[in-house]
Amino acid sequence: MRYHSLAIIVLVVALAFPPFTLTATAQQKNTQPRFITGTYATTNPIYPQIGAEHGIILFDLYGQIAEDYAFVSPPAAQTLGTAQGDITSGTYQIELPETPQGTLMDFDGDRSTPPGVQVFTTATYINFIGDEYINRGETVLDESVHLEPMSYAIIGGYVLVWAVQDGEQFPSNLGPDGAAFTGDESLMSLPAGWSVIALDTEPFSIIRQETVDLPIMESLGALNDYSSMSYEDAWNRLFQRTKETYPFAAEKQLDWDAIYKTITPLVKAATDDVSFHLAIAYLGELIPDTHIGYASVSVLQNLLIGGVGISALAVTSSGEVIVTGLEEGLPAQTAGIDRYNVLLEVDGTPALKALDETPLLLNSASTEQSRRFFQAATLLQGPIGSEVTLTWRSSTGKEYTDTLTREFDASSILAAFDTSSNSDHVITSQMLDSGLGYISVRGFAEEVSTADELFSSALQNLVDAGAQGIIIDVRNNTGGLVNLAMAMAGHFFPDYSKLFDFYYADGQGGFAYRGFVEILKGKPYYEGPVAILVNEMTGSAGDLFTYAMTLDNRALIVGNTPTGGFTGEVSDGQYTLPGSLSVQIPTGRPVNPVTGETLIEGIGVQPDVVVPITQESLVSSDDEVLLAAEQALLEFASN
To answer: DSSP for 532-587?
Structure first.
């Protein structure tokens, strides 16, 4: 989600593949398919990063055909296959069951006859909740059917069907609307038992041979690769797709014509990768959204690789800019700047004003708090050898001014964009001296196949140790798989609960309902007091986890600032542009199922307990936010 981020998994895309050649003999054979083999591949750059267990499955297609987004296939109806390869590509094999346990469907329109056909797809999936099957909250990634990205309609590929008896009716073509299973198709008779149906032929072909090779295709979520185009062509393709799919245009009151007229001249004037990448980066100024990222090596190397050794800055609640990170032996330290000194001016401009005027060269921002986070990372950066004049106030209260020459130093950028920590695991926990339990969740995009199990174990251990309450730390948690976040939230609610609906572009200028996300019931269930620690980089699935924990006043939210306020779904918004520019732009919008309002984007979740940022709190070795959460929970527990 990854959100930078990473968000929800519901994706995949159409790849070209060699056509399956059918012979009349093969079609006429009575031999039923027994083994399904094939290849799979994904170009989406998110999946390789998440450290997930992947699998191959024969999956009941009823939910997609019926547009039943609440459908959950029971484990008995799922047949697992074997895969050779990793999550990005490989080969697979599935042995078909003699009698499948899928959902029987009726395609003949005659309600007097019982349903007699089961329809399946072969698919890849990520296992991150419960056992090795696809459980409630999990879904397939790529399938043997080809989905139209905007409508989600099935428009090609292959399905596997099992008929109760000879003569069961099944669609024979896509029909006038070009989509399968919409009711406008003519019908054909199926032989009893297993058949593979090729949806790319007219009419559909029935394949009955012992082993059938079926490619699993990307239909949603493929990398949009415009890297071989000219600068102008790549920009036009990016703009047109963004205009069609960006989900928050109304909320952010975007003027697409103005955006195009502003950036197009910059693109036309671009003579190299740096100037082109800077033109694309301006999109982040015009569309404020932390999920819009544009990581450019060219911009980094030419404009941002020089620094003075100030690796981190913080802004206090009163607006002072404080040096909180300092590298040894670099110009700032040599000039006498120490940690927790107050930065007063940058090149003669008041420090806070200079910070707020810093362009967003690497990432956009949805909120003021997340914008300042990214601006702080590049405020003092520039080309190696360039100069910057700083004025600062030391701990003694004396003011100094000096002109510093930038050296090779990317420490501030690395500190801002590096999501690693001192821990080897995404989940860490401990019992605090106060008698409260503490669990840190670094993200929802690492160790995803074991994260919920680790969280469950940590929670159970703290409960067994007699914790009087639980504090969950999601500061700097920039997201990942939203359903994994909902699995963790589910340990604090007694039952399943729909959290939001998802809307995506429909290809006709609007946005259509494409499913929902719910809080997932989990064990152990904890009903005691809970606090959530947040900051400006709690975002995406981290934002939505925090929001879930506000329902029914389930938890106190504690932080210096609101959460980051970026909640779009990004799986289908991955791009590569000329000069190896990686761009991410959201395509999915979470909506409150009751009010119809967009959730959190551009606002964030407000803390119940706001902990001011002061120079004293920054200097303190204590974690002021954690201490505030402990105090609030202990007071709650004593009442």
So the answer is: EEE-TT--THHHHHHHHTTGGG-SEEEESS-------B-TT-EEEETTTEEEE---
Q: What is the SS3 assignment for 478?
A: coil
pLDDT at 457 over 60: yes
Is the separation of the CB atoms in 128 and 522 below 8 Å? no
Asked if residues 247 and 234 have their Cβ atoms less than 8 Å apart, the reply is no
Around Cβ 243, how many Cβ atoms within 10 Å? Answer: 16
Give every CB contact of residue 417 below 8 A, 6+ residues apart in sequence.
Answer: 362, 377
Question: What is the rounded radius of gyration, in angstroms, for the C-alpha atoms of the chain?
Answer: 27
CB neighbour burial string for 343-369, b if at least 16 within 10 angstroms, e if fewer:
bbbbeeeebbebbeebebbbbbbbbeb
Residue 422 pLDDT grade (very low, low, confident, very high; cuts 50, 70, 90): low
Instruction: Quote the CA–CA distance of 317 and 132 in Å, as a whole number.
Output: 48
| Model confidence pLDDT, tens digit, residues 312-365 | 999 999 999 999 999 999 999 999 999 999 999 999 999 999 999 999 999 999
Q: Where are the beta strands (DSSP E) in 378-529?
A: 387-393, 399-405, 407-408, 427-431, 437-441, 470-473, 497-505, 511-519
pLDDT tens for residues 133-163?
Answer: 999 999 999 999 999 999 999 999 999 999 9
With cut-offs at 50, 70 and 90, classify the pLDDT of residue 23.
Answer: very low
What would the pLDDT profile of 204-230 be if each residue is shown by its tens digit? 999 999 999 999 999 999 999 999 999
Would you tell me how many other CB atoms lie within 10 Å of the CB of residue 176? 9
**Residue ranges of the alpha helices (H) in 185-224?**
none
Task: Look up residue 607 and give its two tokens.
Answer: 């803390």
C-alpha to C-alpha distances, 349 to 204, 338, 344, 394, nearest whole angstrom: 70, 21, 8, 18
Rounded Cα–Cα distance for residues 63 and 514 (Å): 12
Residues sharing a CB contact under 8 Å with residue 321, sequence separation 6 or more, in sequence order: 313, 314, 315, 342, 343, 351, 352, 355
SS3 state of residue 517? strand
* Sequence-ordered strand ranges (E) for 239-341: 293-295, 306-307, 310-315, 321-326
Number of C-beta neighbours around residue 462 at 10 A = 24
pTM, to two decimals: 0.92
Contacts of 47 (CB under 8 A, 6+ apart): 87, 88, 126, 141
Between 9 and 509, the more confident residue is 509
Torsion, Cα of 271, 291, 247, 181 (10° steps): 100
Q: What angle do CA 65, 483, 455 make, to 5 degrees?
A: 145
Query: Residue 474 and residue 558: Cα distance in Å, rounded?
Result: 10
